[in-house]
Amino acid sequence: MSAEFLLGAASGIYWGDTIFYLVLFLVLVALIKHFAWGPITSMMEKRAEKIASDIDNAEESRAKAEKLESQRQAALKDSHVEASQIIDRAKTNGEQQKSKIIDGAHQEVTALKENAKQDIARERQDALESVKDDVAELSLSIASKVIVKNLKLEDQKALIDSYIEGLGKQNEVK
Amino acid sequence: MNEGANVQTFFGIPFNIGNDVPGLIAAAIVFFLMFFLSRRIEMKPTGKQNVIEWIIDFTNSIIKSTMPGRDGQKFGLLIFTLFSFIFVSNQLGLMLQITVNNVTYVKSPTANVMTTMTLAFMVLLLAHFLGVKKFGFRGYFKNTYLSPIPFLLPISVLEEFTNFLTLALRLYGNIYSGEVLLKLIYKFSKVYGIASFVPAVPLEIIWQGFSVFIGSIQAYVFVTLTMVYISQKVEKE
Question: Where in the cell is the protein located (chain A) (predicted)?
């Protein structure tokens, strides 16, 4: 303050001005801080943070996109291979199934044929046996009737023949 | 060059009203300008917001040049306000001067030595206070007066006074002389009637333009030196 006394001596020292300007300046600082500086700097900081995070995010998403792209490429390549594999497998499966079905059909047909033959043979055997029994029985009954009634062979021959014939026909139908 | 002073005494303290009113006007202009510029702050700056952010970036760059890093950031508000106040003060007297009863009520407040000395005193007091706060009184004394060589102590003490005087008088001298010359040219224009008025008009315009330049430079120099003095006190040499 001594310097002020030296300089101010020429025109009188109005040292109230010093107090006035100090107070004025401090009030100005406080007002500017509240109305301008505070909001502006906080916004500038926020912006700086946002820009930094945006840059980070962009980098991150770029890396993610690249990874996805390479994954997609690999998947595409894999799918080509897989598709051809599937087709091959389906072909071989089809071939196998085809031959299996044909073999099965062959076997079944032969088995059916065999069964049919056997059935036919057995039927025939059965028919022959029953015919034999029937013929014997009929012969006996005819014989007994002939004996009882004293029939003439010539009279009855046609009847017997037709009878036997009917039996044979009955067997054939069976 | 109105030497008259309207001195009022409140509580036994003499106030020069002729010096206080321009300061009040300059402060009001600064406040309303900044208030106007800082309305509707948005994340994406537009128009007015760009202007105030440009000024803030400018004053922050002054701080960064002398005190890089996070230490300097707390001075942002002080330097911003100091710069805008001194800048507006320097330009105020170039545009408008109103004199009532031989006392100029509207002029550059920085054309008065009391104003500039108050500002210089304030920032140097702040610098010394921060030095003591950071290093303690012993560390502050050692850092300011005994380094680099202890026997330079007298010169170091003297330097603190010259710092204060040069900081205050540089600003005062530049602005005061600018106003003096403006008034001299104005008086010259009236001396010989039309013969002096015609050459005085371009002369006045040229000098006003030059004074705008000087006022801007001096505002810049004042805040730069403020930061230099503060950084000298709070950083070990």
Answer: Cell membrane; Endomembrane system
- Which element (helix H / strand E) includes A94? helix A38-149
The domain locations on chain A are 2-173
Residue that is written with structure tokens 């009203």 in the block: B17
For A22, the closest of B52, B78, B118 (CB atoms) is B118
Nearest chain B CA: its distance from A58 CA (Å):
19
Reported confidence tier of residue A32, pLDDT bands at 50, 70, 90: confident
Exposure of B39 in the CB half-sphere (CA atoms within 13 A): 5
| pLDDT-derived band at A57, boundaries 50, 70, 90 | very high
Q: Hey, which of A21-35, A104-118, B110-124 has the most confident mean pLDDT?
A: A104-118
Query: Distance (Å, rounded) from C-alpha A95 to C-alpha B67?
Result: 86
User: CB-CB: which of B16, B37, B109 is closest to A36?
Assistant: B37
Which parts of chain B have pLDDT scores under 50? 1-2
* Chain A residue numbers touching B14 (CB-CB < 8 A): 12-16
**Which residue among B41, B119, B161 places its CB closest to the CB of A40?**
B41
Interface probe for B, chosen from A2, A17, A42, A45 (most Cβ of B below 10 Å), is A17
Contact A18, B114 (CB under 8 A): yes
